[in-house]
Amino acid sequence: MAKKATILIADKEKMLVDLLTRSLTSVETSVFGTTTAEDAARLFDLHEPDLLVIDPTILNGFGLIQSIQSHFGNPKIIGIASSEEVRDQLKSMAVPITVDRNAGLDALVDAIRESLKMDLLALGQKEGVRILVTDDEEDIRDVLVEFLKGCGYVVSVAPDGRGAVERVAADRSLQLVLLDVNMPRMGGIEALREIMARDPHPNVIMMTAVADREIARQALKAGAFDYILKPFDFATIEASIAACMSHIEYQKQPWWKRLTGR
Fold first, then answer.
1. Rounded distance, CA 245 to CA 225, Å?
2. Mean pLDDT over all residues of the chain?
3. Does some domain include residue 53?
4. What confidence tens digit (pLDDT) does each residue in 75-132 have?
5. Which pairs with CB-CB distance under 8 Å and at least 24 residues apart come from 209-215?
6. What are phi and psi of 227, to 5 degrees?
7. 3-class SS of residue 99
8. What CATH number should be reported for the domain holding residue 97?
9. 232 lies in which domain range?
C-alpha cells in the first residue's frame, strides 16, 4: 500500500481549515486541521505529518513552531503571514516557506504542492462546470451570475426552490446548486431534500442572511456541502465552490482507491 502524504493545517480561520481539509484530502493525501496550537501539537505527535501549515498568530503558534523544530530537527513547515512583522519573525525562525495571507488560496495551495513535490487535486477546476444559482432576489442572482461567468463557469438561474428542483430534474448535467434558504413557493431546505433524493444529484451550497446554527445543522444533515452567510464576499463563494469541485473529483475515485491510496 502506498504511503499517503499527511498534512496538518493550524489556522485561526475555521473556514480556511475546513476548506483545505476537504479540498486537499485525496487518495494520496490525508489532511488534519485545527484552530488551536494545543490541538495541533497533539495531532502532530499522533500523525507525524509530512507538512505543517500554520498561522503563527494563533495562541502559542510561534511556540508550537519552536517546539516542533527542537524535537523534530528540520520539519517541513509553511507559515501563513498576515503582516511583515509576522513574516520577519518566521524568517528569523528559519521557517522555509512563508505565504502571504492576502495572496489568496491558490498561492497557499501552490506552496503546499511545491513543498510536497506532488500533484494535488486542483482547486477551482472551472471550465465547463455547470452551476445553478437559486435566489428569489433578482439583484443577487444577477451579481452572482456575472461573477461566476467571469470565473469561467456555465451558469443558469432559478427564482425559487420549486424552480431549482424542476431545473435539476430537467438538466442532469448540473454539477452544483447555489441555493438560498428563504424563498417563496418552496424554501431552500425543502428544495435541498428533494434535490438530494434524486440519483444522481448535483452538490448543493446553501446561502442565507440568517446566522442560525439550527438551519446550518439541518442543511448539512440533509446533504448540503457547505453553508454561506450573506452578505457574502466573492472570495468566500469561490473558495467554497472550489472545495466542492475538488471533493467531487475525489469522490469519483473507486471506493477501494480512496481507502488504500493505490
1. 10
2. 85
3. yes
4. 899 999 999 999 999 999 999 899 998 887 778 888 988 888 765 544 445 557 899 9
5. 209/182, 210/181, 210/182, 215/181, 215/189
6. -145, 115
7. strand
8. 3.40.50.2300
9. 130-251
